[in-house]
Amino acid sequence: MTKRVYVKDIPIGGGSRVSVQSMCNTLTSDFDAIFKSILELAEAGCDIVRVSVPDLESVKSLKKLVLESPIPVVADVHYDYKLALESIEAGAHKLRINPGNLKKEHLRQVAMLAKDRGVPIRVGVNQGSQSVKLSPSELAKLCRDTALYMEDCGTDELVLAVKSSSVMDTISAYRELSKMTDYPLHVGLTEAGTLNMGVTKSNIAIGALLADGIGDTIRVSLTTSPIREVEEGKKILRALGLDKNFVEVVACPTCARTCIDVEKYAQEIENLTKNVKKPLKIAVMGCSVNGIGEAKGADFGVCGGKSQSIIFKDSEVLKSVDNYKVLDELIKLTESYND
Ligand code: SF4
Asked: Model confidence over 11-33: pLDDT tens digits?
């Protein structure tokens, strides 16, 4: 069990729901553009958003963002401790710093002001930003030692992260770190890459850690729209059963025995229910070989047959329908649950 830290009204750690984060990729100084991006991310289900603060113009925009954003805003500051101080004064809901690029005496000033203003800090150590390549265990120790230093400076509202672009190093570093501390952990890879490999790498690293019970908030870092980061993050939580409020469509992979258009029906039902936030399981199975068991285990489902298919509901056979009516039947049942 980790300690609980609040980022405005969103809890991180202490057994609270694993939150999903993302980071804007427009100029923070362009208020209209970044505010639009934050609204879109909030709509997509992002819990906490991070913005870069590379200059004073960005601080000005941040000051307005923290008042108008529907979700908490984290200020991401590198190298310039004065911008970190300014961001705290601007009302940032959390600060992200990298101890690899701030001097210790400057870190102390930042920690003291954060404590005074009640602003939590994420200590994010990245393997790539160290002057020499650190092993996973060295990364974890550096992060833990920085947290101890921050405590010594007076603040213990901390969230820790030890990221690498390597899946195996990331998993090892977080496993080590979780043994050393009870601060909540922000889990993810850094520079994971494009949609192509980035999603796979993130699924493995974040999934393995969450399956071990490690991780209190996640970010899927991708070289694409931040909306996709949120979508992929939510999928990880759903696949692990950490978010049950969604419609799960179970479908068979199809084979020579398939009697109905499984792919089309499953896709249609998934599209129809993508914004439904309640637990529901729908099975679309191509034949009776494995189909009956799966369809019976779902809230409702279909099991394809040669000319007629069986519709199941709550583990019971509801009726048989002609194959050309299967999709209509599934849509009707889905809508009855949506209501
Ligand atoms: S459920 Fe039937 S159609 Fe689907 S993959 Fe299995 S055997 Fe093939």
From this structure: 999 999 999 999 999 999 999 99
